[in-house]
Each structure stands twice: as C-alpha cells, then as structure tokens.
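User: Could you walk me through two proteins back to back? I'd like the raw sequence and the structure tokens for each, with a short line separating them so I can tell where one ends and the next begins.

Assistant: Of course. Protein one, sequence then structure:
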Amino acid sequence: MGEKNSLKEYASIFDEWEALKIKEKVTEPEIETDAYYLFHRAVFKIFETTKIRPVFDATAREGNNPSLNDCLLKGPILIKLIPDILDRFRMYSIGYRLTLKMLSYK
C-alpha cells in the first residue's frame, strides 16, 4: 500500500464523517476560541476489511493543559458486569447482536 494511497484513504474516512455530520471543519475564527482538539493517528491492519482507521488519543496533553480524559466525569467500572451479562446471554437458545455503527448517524 503506497503512502499516497494510504493518505487518501485516511482522508476519505474524515470526508465520510463530515458528510454524515459526525465531524465538521473548524473555521479560522473558531480556532482562536477555547476548545480541545483531539489528537489522532492512522492504524493499519493489512488483513482486515477496514485496512486503515483513525485512533484518537484522549490522554494527550498540550502544554500544561489537561487531557480530554482528565476533564471527563469518571463513571462506574462496568467491566465487573461482563460475567453476569454473559451468563444471562447463555440462558437462551437464540442470541441477538446489534452493531451501533449506523445507529448514531441520524
């Protein structure tokens, strides 16, 4: 996979997100306002159906400013619920699975 093709494919992901109103471009006047811009990088997986995807780093800090993770409300630890959820799932002969990919695009 060439570097130019990879960059085009990576940019096309953000173009798709813009068309779906998941993201929006920041105008020059907006850049000067107080805001947090999330750092991202490309991750390549050659043998997957989605060969390139953005990964965001909410732990990154710029200067003395807090990271996005530092600013978010800490919630309960939900990992403890997984065994109970799996046990309930196994109680029935038929299980359903839902992908949330298109659910939030409205």
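----
Protein two, same layout:
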Amino acid sequence: AVTRRRRTLVLRLENCLGRSMVRSLAVFLAVLLSPSLRSADHPARPNIIWIMCDDLGYGDLGCFGQKVISTPNLDRLAGEGMRFTNFYAGCTVCRPSRLSLWTGKHMGNTPIWSNAGYQFKPEDVTVAELLQGAG
C-alpha cells in the first residue's frame, strides 16, 4: 500500500511538475528521508522550511560568502540543514516566477506572464499540497 501511494504521488508530481523538476525533488526528498541520515532524536518525517525572497542574490547571505550584510539566523539554518547552489528563476518578474516555483510548472504552462491579474484557483495544485498529501 505504501509503495502504491508513493507511485501515485510520483505520477501526480510528474504531471504537475515535469520530469526534470520531479528528478530534482526526488533527490532532495531522498536525502531528507534517508534512514542513514536519521538519528533517534529526529522525527520520521522531515521539517521543510521554505523561505522565499524577491530579488535575493546568491551572494547576499553570509552562508554564501557575504561579508558586509549580517545574516546570522539564515546562516545558522544553512549550517544545520541543506544549501542549494544551483538555482532557476521561472520568469524575469516576481509573480509569475513565484507561481512557477509554487506549482512546479514551467512558465509556458502557467496562466500569467506579468505581476498583475491572476488569483489562485482551487484547481491550482501547489508543491506544498502535494507534500501535505504525503504526510
């Protein structure tokens, strides 16, 4: 039953996100859920903290080498968790890029192209909803 549920989740993710995004997400989740990385004091399911900032560059945080601006709390989180060094922006403006990230859809498959005029609809499935469905 668990394997069937996982297979269903992967198929839903592939339909929603596309294969390359699913592969990246699968590697990310495999590392988080790996039994060898868990100890007795860690919960069975990982906590995922998703921080989004507009116009934040790679070198703007101390954990990536910033020396002028102090980011001690984010640096501590990065030191205790995972840091990603390969990034992609779905669009050149904020709102469509956020929608692309939240839904996992390529910009060509989203209904907005600018910062105005779109409200989330009930049929818009987000990555958070898919993860919530997995427990």
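The chain has a mean pLDDT of 74.

Let me know if you want the two compared in more detail.
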